[in-house]
Amino acid sequence: MTGGTGTASVRTRDPMSEPAHPRDRHPSQRRARAARHAWAPAPALVAAILSVPVLVVAAALLVWRPDWRDVQPAVVIPWALLLAGAAALTGWHLTRHRAQLVASAEAATALALEREERLDLIVSSLHEGLLFQDAQLRIQEFNESAAEILGLTERSLGRRPDELGPWQLIQDDGSPVPEEAHPAVVALRTGTRQVRVRLGLRTPTRTRWLQLTAVPVVGDGGAVEGVITTFSDVTEARDTRHALATTEAAATSAAEALSWQVRHDSLTELPNRAELVARVEEVIARRRRAALLTLDLDRFKQVNDTLGHEAGDRVLVEVARRLRDAVRSDDVVARIGGDEFAVLPSSGDRTEVVNLAERLRAVVARPLWLSQGTITLSTSVGIAFDTDGEPTTLLRDADTALHKAKEQGRDRVEVFDDSLRAETVRRAAAEQILRTALDEDGLRILYQPIVDLHTGQLVGAEALLRVIGPHRELLTPASFINVAEDTGLIVPLGSAVLEGACAQLRDWQRDLGQRAPRHVAVNVAARQLTSLLPGEVEAALDRCSLDPGQLVLELTETALIEAGREALDAVEHLHGLGVRFAIDDFGTGYSSLAYLKRFPVDIVKIDRSFTRGLGQQQHDTEIVRAVVALARSLRLTCVAEGVETEDQLLALRDLGCDHAQGYLLSRPVPGDELGGVLDRIAGAAELLGRADGPRHIRVV
Questions:
Q1: Residue 444 CB contacts under 8 Å (≥ 6 apart), including other chains
Q2: Fewer Cβ in 10 A, N or C end of the chain?
């Protein structure tokens, strides 16, 4: 077939209307079969019939030749009858032989007819279309499937397919099939099979896809006399394969997109920490020495707090762009945390890496324009060089150097060295001590009394955490607090202190009665200021049957700086319940006054660094005076820390400070020993009573 179609159907036989036996399907075969079943004479009858003419002939001879009368009839007649019987038997045998030959011929003919009928039935019932064309591609024969697929009729016989109708053979891309490329034409021209060729049959209403095989028909002389084409409709299979391919392509695309998302930061589209580790592994595998820079935007949290998280996201995107533009094409820039980035340079040369760090600091420090205005950021950079071929070690060392840069004042570059390595070892040991203490009851809570400077009475106690060290010594927060905050262990530690302090206040109220502190103060770290804190505090107060006003939560400046909307909501919720809040180390932070406006604060605590200079350093005295005046004007309670001398105690009283705590009054003691220091506190009250009245504070 090489062209279009008409519409028709082919002739079919009704097997129920024809004889069942193949040999009875043709009229001549039925007549021959009937003749064979007709009556045939036996040999004895034939011999008897033949004996009559023999006797007649013998009588005639005797009449005609009288001289033969001497021959005895008894001899002539038997011989004549014997000859007649032999002739009859010979004729009968000849008849039987002929009948057998005819029967064999008829059986062969019937078998051929049967095979022809079966072949015709098979061809007619094929699901594949079958089309026979002569050397001029005129249609000579076709089966029912071909008629159904191509729309052929009896009128299609003797015509070329391209003369039949408005259809066209097309290739996979939709382009027409050239005449010389048609499988039937190629089979006729080359005399070779064209196997499993897929083409489309396009009609005005639809396109069907066919799979064709064209086989040349070779005559006795070796010339190609025609071609037989078989074909099947593979439209559904092709559509299924196309749908599967489309689905597979979509799945592959989705998998690739998911894989990309897993390995990249969605906001900046930079590689994330997991991808950075993989790149570090590749670099280490290619060469012996690798370097890594980690960068953290200084005080980025203030951008989120003052301008909003949307502005913060724009800042991160812009910083990411600047970092990409500032490095070489084969350097890797990644975002590994909230405002923390990393750069994996292609060169591990120390000088080049340090110069790159300074260049990155410079590009980040350029003014950045937002709709709310122009801001300027700084960044701290940590640098580490590979020493053991472990990517995790390299990241840890760079992170340690970054923390060192921030501790040294921010906006600087620190390189990981032996001293920092020793610090890393110390921090790892401190982390292990903290984890062991949490698991094995290695936490101890001491309490430092807080005294009213006007009455000399015990008004409260601050809970101070201590950790039992490897040699059973008590470790102060200075040795582990940074590690606890960095590792997140500050959260379970803070929960333990909160629970223990509430329980201890309950015990004091039971054992000391009116002499018991009226409140207990507990420090709260930035990581604790989440939506979970109110529930935790309420549960602790309920278990110990305490009034919310008997609990004071002290917030450090670090906690206030890092506090976001969630933290503020938690503070406001607890304050609404009656829990009081204090700002610890007030006056040491550059923005402490802003926190008095933003947070519901009840108490300000003057840092010990200012208390120490009272009466000796004028600026310390004036700072304390200003803080006390500010607290009084805002109706806040003012507490001075670090009181170690009588002069400091009396000076604070004279300046109008409300409460004080320090070694002069009492060192931190276990909860069950607080009753033993009440006499010492009473002595302080007596001192305050004796010195009642105005005093002149000499400032040097």
A1: 465, 466, 467, 468, 474, 670
A2: C
Contacts of 463 (CB under 8 A, 6+ apart): 445, 446, 447, 497, 500, 501, 504, 520, 521, 522, 523
SS3 672: helix
Rounded Cα distance between 595 and 655, Å, is 23
- Angstrom distance (rounded) from CA 51 to CA 30: 36
The pTM assigned to this predicted structure is 0.55
pLDDT tens, residue by residue, 537-580:
999 999 999 999 999 999 977 677 666 778 888 999 999 999 99
Q: How would you classify residue 195: left for phi > 0, otherwise alpha for psi between -120 and 50, otherwise beta?
A: beta
In angstroms, the CA 599 to CA 582 distance is 10
Listed ranges 208-217, 248-257, 442-451; the one with the highest mean pLDDT: 442-451
Sign of the C-alpha dihedral, residues 9, 10, 15, 19? Answer: positive
Summarize pLDDT for 598-629 with one digit per residue, the tens.
788 999 999 888 898 887 788 888 889 999 99
- Do residues 213 and 182 touch, judged by C-beta distance below 8 A? no
Residue 645 CA to residue 612 CA, distance in Å, equals 9
Q: CA–CA separation, 221 vs 331, rounded Å?
A: 76
For residue 9, how many C-alpha atoms fall within 13 Å in the half-sphere facing its CB? Answer: 3
Range list of H helices, 344-390: 350-365
What ranges in 40-129 are assigned the alpha helix state H? 43-64, 73-125
Token output for 455: 């009455």
Q: Which of 263, 416, 391, 270 is nearest to 332 (CA)?
A: 270
Residue partners of 15: CB distance under 8 A and separation at least 6: none
What is the rounded CA–CA span in Å between residue 79 and residue 43?
A: 17
Would you call 515 exposed, middle or buried from its count of C-beta atoms within 10 A (0-12, 13-18, 19+)?
middle
Task: State how beta strands 519-524 and 551-555 pair.
Answer: parallel
Q: Give one DSSP letter per residue of 186-230, joined into a string.
A: HHHHH---EEEEEEEEE-SS-EEEEEEEEEEEE-TTS-EEEEEEE
Amino acid at 53: P
